[in-house]
């Protein structure tokens, strides 16, 4: 039962480290049908990876890497939209 409680808290911990509401981890607007099928698997993989990192500093570093990559990709998309 303790493992289930720990796992259930992972989204709250990730949201807290990101400084966002838990709902923002799941609210992706209106994804395409392919995205909506892939999203739960991707979220599960990220949550599993997050849970596997036991060291708090390494966990924060891992979250920072994901955030930086997401921002880089967002900037690339924004730049291509302006062309």
Task: Produce a short descriptive summary.
The chain has 83 residues and is mainly α.
List the helices and strands and how they pair.
Blueprint: H1 2-18, H2 33-52, H3 56-82
Overall pLDDT score: 77
Task: State the helical fraction.
Answer: over 70%
Given the helix and strand composition, which structural class is it?
mainly alpha
Rg, Å, rounded: 15 Å
Topology order in helix (H) and strand (E) letters: HHH
Strand portion: under 5%
Shape: globular
Distance from first to last alpha carbon: 53 Å
Description:
With 83 residues, the chain is mostly helical. Helix content is 77%, strand content 0%. It has three helices and no strands. The chain has helices at 2-18, 33-52, 56-82. The longest helix has 27 residues, at 56-82. It is globular, with a radius of gyration of 15 Å. The model has no long low-confidence stretch (mean pLDDT 77).
Structural descriptors:
mainly alpha; 83 residues; 3 helices
């Amino acid at each position: 039962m303790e493992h289930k409680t720990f796992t259930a808290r992972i989204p709250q911990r990730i949201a807290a480290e990101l400084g966002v509401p838990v709902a923002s981890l799941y609210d992706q607007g209106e994804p395409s049908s392919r995205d909506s099928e892939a999203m739960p698997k991707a979220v599960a993989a990220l949550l599993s990876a997050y849970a596997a990192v036991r060291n708090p500093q390494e966990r924060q570093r891992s979250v920072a890497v994901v955030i930086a990559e997401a921002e880089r990709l967002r900037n690339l998309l924004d730049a291509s939209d302006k062309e």
